[in-house]
Each structure stands twice: as structure tokens, then as C-alpha cells.
Description:
This protein folds into 2 domains: about 55 residues; about 140 residues, Porin. The N terminus is likely disordered. By secondary structure, it is of the alpha+beta class. It is built from 1 helix and 8 strands. The termini are far apart. The protein has an 8-stranded antiparallel β-barrel.
Amino acid sequence: MKLILLSALILVFASALMAQDTISSVQDTIKVEQVKPAEETQASKPQASQAWKNKIYFGGYVNFSLGNYAMVGIEPMVGYKLLPFLSLGLKLRYDYISDKRYSETYNTSNYGGSLFARINTKRRIYLHAEYASYNYELFDEYGELGREWIPYLFLGGGYSQPLGGRTSLNAQILFDVLLDDRSPYKKWEPFYSVGISVGF
């Protein structure tokens, strides 16, 4: 009888020990599972930040137009990719002008800014639409000066050639379809731009 009781006590004690080990194991598992989401959250923050940076591109253009109203300008820009094929952006612009339409040649400068949208295609060609407003120093037939803001609506496109890494060479041609009466350019005169961009 004593042997049976002793055996029963040993079984109860062993069962209690096994149950305690099982509870500890379950608690450790719960703790590990609670830690994993926090680790994943910390790891995902740099990836989210990197993804946001990859949507931004920047660069600039050298603009030129030849003829009696000759222009050479610089145009820094920054853009943001809303979708892989669609982006919006902002440009600032400064131009040096040589106006030979009068008996005397006039040299001056213009400045302004614009908002643009681009649609990329799979063949490195992009479509471009841009609303711009530039401040011009205009000359009348008597050579008198006056500054005015003139609006433009440019439509056209360009070609982007990768140079390595995230850098590309861009060449584009645009036409003003707004054709404001005060514009110094002839109707449908093309605007050529060549520049470098990073991330486009």
C-alpha cells in the first residue's frame, strides 16, 4: 500500500513539473510573438522612408530659342512620382534675352516659374504639359521699357536617356498653345530644352 501511495505521489509531482515546463514554454512563445511585430515595424520604417525618397527626382535644363528674339536660360526643377508613370513638379526659370527686332538690339533678363505634369512611356519617351508664368521686360516700337507677367501653356514631350545610376539626360521640345498676344514668340515656335535629371 505504501508503495502504491509513493508511486502515486511521484506521478503527481512529475506531472506538476511537466505542466510548469509547458506553461513556461507557452509564455516564451507568446513573448517571442509579441516582439516580432515590433521588430518588423522598426525594419519597415527605413524601407518606407527609402521608398518616399525614390519618388522624388530633380535636375535642370538649359533652354534656348534662336532668331531675332534669342534666348538662353537655366531652369532647375523638382518632381514627385504620384504613380510609376505619372509625376507632378515645379520649375524655376531665368533667361538672358537678346532682342533684335528693333533698330537697336536690346539685352535684358526674364524670370518666372511653372507647374508641370509628365506621363512616362516604356520607350523612354515622356509626354509633358506645363503651365508657366514669366516676367518679361518688353520693348515697344519706340524702345520704351515695361515689365509684364505673361502666361504660357506648353505641350510636348521628350526623351530620357539613362547615363548610369539614377541619372539621365533629357531632351524635350514644347509648344505654347495659349498664344498670349503679349508673348514675344511667334505662333507655334518650338522651345528646345536639354538637361540632366536624377531619379526620373
